[in-house]
Specification:
The protein is mostly helical. The protein folds into 2 domains: 5-350, Up-down Bundle (Rhopdopsin 7-helix transmembrane proteins), CATH 1.20.1070.10; 361-458, no CATH class. 62% of the residues lie in helices and 9% in strands. It has helices at 5-14, 20-23, 37-65, 73-90, 93-101, 111-148, 153-156, 159-181, 216-259, 263-305, 312-329, 332-340, 342-352, 354-377, 441-445; strands at 25-26, 184-192, 200-208, 386-387, 395-398, 401-404, 411-415, 418-421, 430-431, 449-450. A 3-stranded antiparallel β-sheet has the order 1-3-2. Helix 9 packs antiparallel against helix 10. The longest helix is centred in the middle third of the chain and has 44 residues, at 216-259. The chain is globular. One of its GO terms (molecular function) is G protein-coupled peptide receptor activity. It is found in: Membrane. This is G-protein coupled receptors family 1 profile domain-containing protein.
């Protein structure tokens, strides 16, 4: 049952409101007219499911990145993105369930629900999504500084600067969202329920100032400027920075063999390239869903300025698909981190199953020893090697038995914003004796390793970047 225009007019006049057609509208749907079926499927079935999955996966990301040994400027920004994406989905979740899943659109909406729906379904998701967009831009700028201007990274790529950038982004998002609170005003009206004619209650109608001829031009300009500031501008910056980072990664890959002579330096460069590649993929997925949204907002704003209804049906349909695509992109970051970041995988595995990490750490000295033996057995000149330093660590080989007494740590912090686990123990003093014979490959495989204090605990790790 749908209320007729005459019945609507009589109800409005009884409430002291003169005209519904010119100044007021039912919020957000005309009573008794539910949205199309595709709208119900996307917003009432698919969206709640994606929001639940995204919340779980982003919570796991937050738990991993909050560990002390993973605190760095890059990881702080990744943590902020995960948090903003989660909040962008959580706040409209109740509205999706109430309106679309249970189809509570076949009657008037209660007056008390008007502002709740407006704030939770439209304003707050916009604020948090804006924060997510600009924190992604900050992340790309930080990686650009680190790759292209590494000398300035110590000053700009710090945790304090990352927190300041996040605070500025929050302030920017709040300022941009202020007109959304002033875009309309809600008013109560006493109506008779469409489902139960004996029941009356206060329904919600809204005065939409963006449709008022006195303010329509102002709000159209605001829509275009908002699209430029929130969508087009960030996407343009990200496309440029992404192109630069991809070019630098290709150049680094071509020149790594020539520039990096030592294995440790080569591993270090490879690690930073992997981090950059991971962030480039994150930004690329972001651009795939945000660029079409930016074009949609620009076209919509221009049509409002021209007061044209051209493509209105297509734009209403496409915006639902674009919003769902944005929501669908939120859980993807978790799988990117798991696939491309060993530090993230190790930290995540340690949370779920610490015994696996402990077993891997117990096997680390044996792997390091095989690397040492491979290096020295390939050279006939290494019959006697002795290196003295302060910690007096010894490797002694007698009758194919090796005893290693390492120093207390095997972790080296090369820079403030990155750290690496050395593939070999710290050998401050090495003494190898062969009893007149050289080790054969078979004898090398039979060697036994005895370590004192050889375990690496998570408290000693400092893997600042994923």
């Amino acid at each position: 049952m749908v209320i007729s225009p005459n019945e609507t007019s009589s109800i409005i006049e009884a409430s002291g409101i003169n005209s519904l057609r010119t100044n007021f509208d039912w919020y957000p749907f005309y009573p008794g007219k539910c949205p199309p079926s595709y709208y119900i499927i996307l917003q009432g079935i698919c969206a709640p499911l994606i929001i639940i999955i995204s919340t779980v996966l982003n919570s796991l990301i937050a738990v991993v990145l909050l560990q002390k040994h993973l605190r760095s400027a890059t990881n702080i920004l990744l943590l902020a993105i995960a948090l903003y994406d989660t909040l962008t989905g959580l706040f409209p979740f109740p509205a999706c369930i109430y309106v679309f899943t249970f189809k509570n659109c076949n009657d008037y909406w209660p007056y008390n629900y008007g502002w709740f729906h407006r704030v939770n379904y439209e304003v707050l998701p916009f604020i948090f999504h804006t924060c997510s967009i600009w924190v992604t831009v900050v992340l790309a700028i930080q990686r650009y500084i680190y790759v292209c201007h590494s000398g300035k990274a110590k000053h700009w790529c710090t945790v304090r600067m990352a927190l300041k950038a996040i605070a500025c982004v929050n302030l920017l998002a709040l300022i941009v969202a202020v007109p959304m609170f002033l875009e309309g005003s809600f008013h109560p009206i006493t109506v008779r329920s469409l489902l139960d004619s004996t029941k009356t209650f206060e329904a919600c109608i809204v005065r939409d100032y963006s449709k008022d001829p006195r303010f329509s031009t102002l709000y159209s300009v605001y829509s275009v400027l908002r699209a430029l500031l929130i969508n087009v501008g960030p996407c343009t910056i990200l496309v440029i920075l992404n192109a630069i980072l991809v070019h630098r990664m290709k150049a680094a890959k071509q020149n790594r063999a020539r520039l990096m002579r030592k294995r440790s330096h080569e591993a270090r460069a490879q690690e930073q390239t992997s981090v950059t590649l991971m962030l480039v993929i994150v930004v690329t997925i972001f651009l795939i869903v945000e660029v079409p949204m930016a074009l949609h907002l620009i076209i919509t704003g221009l049509l409002q300025l021209l007061k044209s209804n051209f493509l209105s049906g297509f734009l209403n349909f496409s915006v639902q698909l674009l919003n769902f695509a944005v929501l669908l992109s939120y859980p993807i970051n978790f799988f990117i981190y798991c696939r491309m970041s060993r530090a993230f995988r190790d930290a995540f595995t340690e949370l779920l199953c610490p015994s696996k990490i402990q077993n891997r750490q117990d096997r680390l000295p044996s792997t390091a020893l095989r690397l040492i033996n491979k290096q020295y057995n390939n050279d006939d000149n290494y019959n006697h090697l002795e290196c003295n330093n302060n910690n007096n660590t010894h490797i002694e080989t007698r009758n194919s038995i090796i005893k290693i007494q390492p120093s207390s740590t095997v972790i080296f912090n090369h820079r403030a914003d990155e750290a690496h686990i050395s593939l070999t123990p710290s050998l401050n003093s090495i003494d190898i004796q062969h009893n007149g014979t050289k080790n054969s490959p078979d004898s090398t495989m039979k060697q036994h390793v005895l370590f004192r204090d050889d375990k690496i605990t998570s408290k000693n790790k400092r893997l600042n970047n994923l």
